[in-house]
Amino acid sequence: RAGSDIAFLGGIVNYILENGREFREYIVRYTNAATIVGEDFRDTEDLDGLFSGFDEENAKYDVSSWQYEGTEVNAAAGNRDMAAQGEAHGRGSTLTSGRPNNIDPTLEHPRCVFQLLKKHYRRYTSEVVEQVCGIPQHLFIEVAESLCENSGRERTSAFCYAVGWTQHTVGVQYIRTAAIIQLLLGNIGRPGGGILALRGHASIQGSTDVPTLYNILPGYIPMRHAHAKFGLQDFIQNTGDKNGYWGHMDAYLVSMLKAWWGANATSANEYCFDYLPRLTGDHSAYVSTLGAIDGTVKGYLLVGENPAVGNANGKLHRLALANLEWLVVRDFQEIESASFWYDSPEIETGELRTPDIETEVFFLPAAAHTEKDGTYTNTQRMLQWHHKAVDPPGDCRSDLWFVYQLGRRIREKLAGSLEPKDKPILELTWDYPTHGEHEEPSAEAVLKEISGWTIADGKAVSGYEELKPDGSTACGVWIYSGCYADEENLPARRKPHWEQKTWVAPEWAWTWPMNRHIIYNRASADPDGKPWSERKKYVWWDDEKQEWTGYDVPDFKKTMRPDYEPSEGAKAEMALRGDEPFIMQADGKGWLYVPSGLTDGPLPTHYEPHESPFANPLYKQQANPVRQVFHRKENPYNPTHGEPGADVFPYVMTTYRLTEHHTAGGMSRTLPYLSELQPEMFCEVGPELAAECGLEHGGWATVVSARTAIEARVLVTDRMKPLRVAGRIVHQVGLPYHWGGRGLSTGDSANDLFPLALDPNVHIQEVKAATCDIRPGRRPRGPALLGLV
User: Which of 153, 391, 554, 660 could form a disulfide with 678 if both were Cys (CB 3.0 to 4.6 A apart)?
Assistant: First the structure.
């Protein structure tokens, strides 16, 4: 059942623990299973679906009671969303010894993480999985047993997930549950293991690394916040760690500032740290869209995205676009987010009138990836260079050209300004070499800036370990440091694996960090540095050479012995022991239990989707108590279970993608071959639901929610099986979300049906599980559509 994955995965956790199938030596030494949690912590088992620290009035958690006993520990990569925590900045005291004060290697203490896990997931039995998910017990046990059989010293298993796991109000906790399973089974840091994100778009990994996210700086350095009046050193102290590689936050941040502001960044002005923009609250995409409706957001740049089709509650987005002063759209085609002002469902219903819309729309045609140089960085963190094949036609330009030329023209307009607010722009390093009649900036020069160099001689650094906090190095993205080592474009390498000494193929492109293909690979060897098995050997300690060796770049310093113990006062990676592989964590451990860093709980917990036809069968608490919801007239919600009117929307709907189309359709519905292969929007239903509602295969159906109604062709398949959940049958409706009103293949947009209900950690929308009604026939036209809704 859509929206029930934590119950399913939690059942696997329980199966592992109840049957003693965990990789005991791995979890005792490499995870926080033995760490004892503070006595003030209360689990969902104690509070019927809530954790300790819940503030009901503000729908937020005070997470202080989730910490380890006697020691506070910081989340890796710092506090990236301080806006969710009021005026409090920083993450408490940091570890000073490289490990928590109180541990129990026997895993018997009632408050050690291992026992808390057992207690938390004890109710997630195979019977409960069947009741919540609709999965027969024998199939569930087959999955759980397969994972256990294919894990351990000799074997590893991997989880591969896509946005079916992320687009939920508990999306982050879905992946967290998989992480718990993988840590329990010893499948992290080892070949064939891991958790692999099958991203929704090319180079999405790169877009978060560099990043396009509003609340982090390149390389996952936290953004500044306006209410935290910190200088550079205070910021580093409150966001870095004393232990692990975040102990070098000062080198990463100062090198980035030097790359941005060059000679203007000096120790006297804290390397222009004060020039960094500051967050004043939640500036995520959906909150910004609501700001456009409210008139606080005046302009919008849409670069390669189509929120009028691709985002939840498309009507809300189109109303927002109609309330802007200006809109810039860069794309290959005139997408729905560019044509909303004269061609949209709201124009048809009369909710928008073209003469009333004052938004000035600038459509700027973009170059395709075949028409520009650059890199892709995908799931495996590999930077792969792509070469321009042909020049872009007409007025089409690359995104690099657009950003560079826009910056140059803004700087020209500000030239001579004495306003303090203009100095950060005027003092930027913005001197990239250009070529051709259109003055295209050199993508390779940008890559070199990202990789980093020593300022005295201009030579490229070989990796992040060469970055310094004294202003002597510059580096745009510390995790990419070394991708241009020895003045060579390493992502452009194309030596096939059969011409190399190892199947890891280190000379094909370049993988961050340090060309390391598996991160946390110290975990591929046992605590003594020996391979867990000959079959799965990857990185190991060579006692004769007194160094780490293997098929990959070791995570550890090459000469750090497996039995290394940090001395008093040791810092950064030297504050971790030689058998603590999770080098980005302050305690060196993989976290089965999360004492800080998440807003909605230290352990994943099954909650129903925001819109659900069922009561939560596990707890009194129905949905994620800190999910983001927006009670506004533009964003009505369907009644959920137990609320008046819930039976109006008895079915579950979910969205997905098709092989033949790409996300919001701007790149595929405009191509004849792809449009011919998948010519029409459809809804996928099972034969039983089709019979119940009078739907005919190939005919029309109307799907209805509190937001709107859409029409779609009916596709009847055996894939959409009726599920028995909580003692009754539930039917699900599958909706591909690629269609909109523009292009060669047009249709209603599935995402128009879904509300804004967001995960509180990363602000992603819940479009994989909501409720709806479905009926035969086409939807009404014009204002009559509003009457139906």
Answer: 660
Name the residue type at position 580.
E
Q: Are 409 and 401 in contact (CB under 8 A)?
A: no
CATH 3.30.750.24 applies to domain 628-788: no
- pLDDT, tens digit (0-9, with 9 covering 90-100), for 361-394: 999 999 999 999 999 999 899 999 999 999 999 9
| pLDDT of 97 over the 60 cut | no
* Full DSSP string of 652-700: EEEEE--TTS-TTSTTTTTSHHHHHHS-S-EEEE-HHHHHHHT--TTSE
- Which residue(s) pair with 453 in the sheet? 460, 474
Q: What is the pLDDT of residue 84?
A: 43
Each domain of the chain, given as residue ranges in start order, spans: 628-788
- Per residue in 675-709, pLDDT (tens digit) is 999 999 999 999 999 999 999 999 999 999 999 99
Q: Which of 611, 629, 609, 630 is nearest to 705 (CA)?
A: 611
The average pLDDT across 541-567 equals 96
Token representation of residue 719: 């894939």
Give the model's pLDDT for residue 202: 84
In angstroms, the CA 757 to CA 325 distance is 27
- Residue 373 CA to residue 371 CA, distance in Å, equals 7
d(CA 410, CA 243): 42
Bridge partners, 60 (sequence order): 55
> What is the rounded CA–CA span in Å between residue 744 and residue 665?
10
Phi-psi region of 111 (alpha: psi -120 to 50; beta: other; left: phi over 0): alpha
360, containing H or E segment: strand 360-365
Could you give the C-alpha distances from 49 to 114, 161, 175, 619, in angstroms and in order? 19, 26, 19, 5
Residue 718, number of CB atoms within 10 A of its CB: 7
Distance between CA 741 and CA 277 in Å, rounded? 38
Max Cα–Cα distance, the chain, nearest Å? 81
Q: Can you state the percent helix, strand and coil of the chain, rounding each to 5?
A: 30, 15, 55
Neighbours of 233 (CB within 10 A): 12
Q: What is the DSSP string of 433-483?
A: -EETTTTEE-HHHHHHHHH-EETTT-PBPSSGGG--TTSSEE-S-GGGTTT
pLDDT given for residue 199 in this prediction: 81
Report yes or no: 757 and 628 within 8 Å, Cβ to Cβ.
yes
Strands (E), 64-145: none
- The pLDDT tens digits for 206-233 are 989 999 889 999 999 999 988 878 899 9
- 10 CB contacts (<8 Å, ≥6 apart)? 121, 124, 177, 604, 605, 606
pLDDT above 80 for 128: yes
Query: Which tens digits make up the pLDDT trace of 23-75?
Result: 999 999 999 999 999 999 999 999 999 999 999 999 999 999 999 998 877 77
Quick check: 632 and 291 in contact, CB under 8 A? no
Task: Flag whether pLDDT at 19 surpasses 80.
Answer: yes
φ, ψ of residue 435 in degrees (nearest 5):
-150, 160
- Mean pLDDT score across all residues of the chain: 94
Q: Which residues of 594-617 are buried (b: 16+ CB within 10 A; e: fewer)?
A: bbbbbbbbbbbbbbbbbbbbbebb
Weakest-pLDDT range from 117-121, 243-247, 509-513, 525-529: 243-247
The CA–CA distances, whole Å, from 688 to 130, 684, 721 equal 20, 12, 8
pLDDT of residue 230: 86
Q: What is the DSSP letter of 112?
A: B
State which amino acid sits at residue 348: E
